[in-house]
Design a protein that fits this description.
Domain Calcineurin-like phosphoesterase: 3-195
Number of domains: 2
Keywords: Hydrolase, Nucleotide-binding, Signal
Number of strands: 26
Structural class: alpha/beta
Organism: Rossellomorea aquimaris
GO molecular function: hydrolase activity, acting on ester bonds; metal ion binding; nucleotide binding
Shape: elongated
Domain 5'-Nucleotidase C-terminal: 274-416
Length: 462
């Protein structure tokens, strides 16, 4: 029996491109077609998703006729509650055989696998979510070993299906290994590492394909399922750039953007005092973040770069304003690091060239790296060289380990490489913009944000 599968992966909310992918999908589908997504469809950098708790993405999936998707890491990034809200409010199955709540209980709406029927075939679809290490705990997520989880689903459903599709968000290299190790999987559709296969391939009898990212390609796999197994008839990825824009997708996005802006534009509170911003000079909005991080994470001191925000906040705070001034989905993060590496980073921060460097790095959606700001610490300098650093009124010791309240951006050494020499990192589910939201209406924190932490030598002498 013939089966056609149309698949996408790693869209990351590139919805303009998806509007073309959608028209291509609709042109190629028929009554014997499954439409599947490999995860990271919903990237919460999108205003449409931020303001609708992800439901704009659900409407898009349903409008195109998706039959299932596997949960990628980006579906988790607006909090576990949002993931469960999305998964519980759609007929499109959200699949993950290895994703649980932090307490190891089952997530609402999430299915370890489903069996769908097409053209008389019983099709088992399962798939795994990626293990993000210590970051999982901060997101409120528990991830089990994906190989064991896949084997368990195959065992649990044995005898109840004719063909098994593994819709997996763990990367193509891991899936190549699975094809050589596992029996019972007929088709693997890969995601997570954005790999583009020009043509589908067969490894150890398993058909494999991956459609790149951002909706720039759509994968099509056609197979013949017989009692002897699955035979590949057609397997390719088709570029979407020349396809027309799907008007239904555009209409859904337009309506949801309007809803989202209305929700996100509602005032949360008025500011007692404006929080201005500067990339190079010490400024109150970045100090506020450093102070808030230290209060949240209870470390020896707080450390954050001014490039984490693009502008200041004036008059009042809304969620829309927070997204605009702090677009990066970066998280409050604590880690331990020796004083000598802190000293190196602080010294580099006096260099305007370092501050104005491109801030590129995982999750960063700002412009510049920016100057380091501290909380619970004081720095003395002459404009070119740092002479003293005090942590809690005690001079910094090069070999001593300090706990730092910061972000995952700095924890990775982005912008300031010496900070990557750390250990014992721990992440929180909140985002840096939430720190502004949480502390911007506290008068004591606003007043403290205006206190100077970088002292020029001449000022100290006076």
């Amino acid at each position: 029996m013939k089966l056609k599968i149309i698949h996408t992966n790693d869209l990351h909310s590139h919805f303009e491109t998806f509007s073309r992918a959608a028209s291509l999908i609709k042109a190629h589908k028929d009554e014997n077609t499954l439409i599947l997504d490999g995860g990271d469809f919903a990237d919460f950098r999108s205003v449409e998703l931020q303001g609708t708790r992800g439901m704009a993405a659900i409407e898009l999936l349903e409008s195109v006729g998706y039959d299932a998707l596997t949960i990628g890491n980006n579906e988790m990034f607006n909090g576990f509650d949002t993931l469960e809200h999305m998964a519980s409010n759609t007929p499109v199955p959200f699949i993950s055989n290895n994703l649980y709540r932090k307490d190891k209980t089952v997530a609402n709406g999430v299915k370890p696998s489903v069996i769908l029927k097409k053209n008389g075939l019983r099709i088992l679809i399962t798939g795994s979510s990626p293990d993000l290490g210590g970051f999982n705990y901060g997101l409120g997520v528990h991830i089990t070993d994906f190989k064991n989880a896949i084997v368990e689903e195959i065992k649990r459903n044995r005898g109840n299906y004719d063909v098994c599709i593994l819709l997996n968000h763990v990367g193509t290299l891991a899936d190549d290994e699975l094809a050589n190790e596992l029996d019972g999987v007929d088709i693997i559709l890969s995601a997570h590492d954005h790999k583009l296969y020009p043509q589908a391939k067969v490894i150890n009898g398993t058909v494999m394909n991956s459609a790149g990212c951002y909706g720039e390609y759509v994968g099509i796999v056609e197979v013949d399922v017989t009692k002897d197994g699955v035979k590949l008839l057609r397997g390719e990825t088709i570029e979407t750039g020349s396809s027309p824009i799907d008007k239904e997708v555009v209409a859904i996005l337009k309506e949801n953007k309007k809803k989202a802006i209305d929700v996100l534009s509602r005032s949360l509170y008025k500011l007692d005092q404006s929080l201005w911003h500067d990339v190079i000079e010490e400024n109150p909005i970045t100090n506020l973040i450093a102070d808030g991080l230290l209060d949240m994470l209870k470390c020896d001191f707080g450390l954050i770069n001014s490039g984490i925000v693009n502008a200041g906040a004036f008059d009042f705070i809304t969620n829309k304003k927070l997204i605009e001034i702090c677009p990066s989905p970066l998280n409050p993060t604590s880690f331990d690091i020796q004083g000598k590496h802190i000293r190196t980073a602080i010294q580099q921060s006096l260099d305007a060239g370092v501050c104005l460097a491109d801030g590129k790095g995982p999750g960063f959606r700002g412009k510049f790296v920016g100057r380091l700001h501290v909380s619970g610490a004081e720095i003395t300098h002459d404009g070119k060289r740092v002479s003293e650093i005090h942590i809690g009124n005690v001079p910094l010791e090069d070999e001593k380990w300090y706990s730092v309240a910061s972000s995952d951006y700095l924890q990775r050494g982005s912008g300031y490489e010496s900070l990557a020499q750390n250990r014992n990192e721990k992440y929180m589910a909140e985002e840096i913009r939430d720190v502004i939201r949480m502390y911007g209406d506290r008068k004591d924190f606003i007043e403290k944000a205006y206190l100077t932490r970088w002292k020029e030598s001449s000022d100290v002498m006076v």
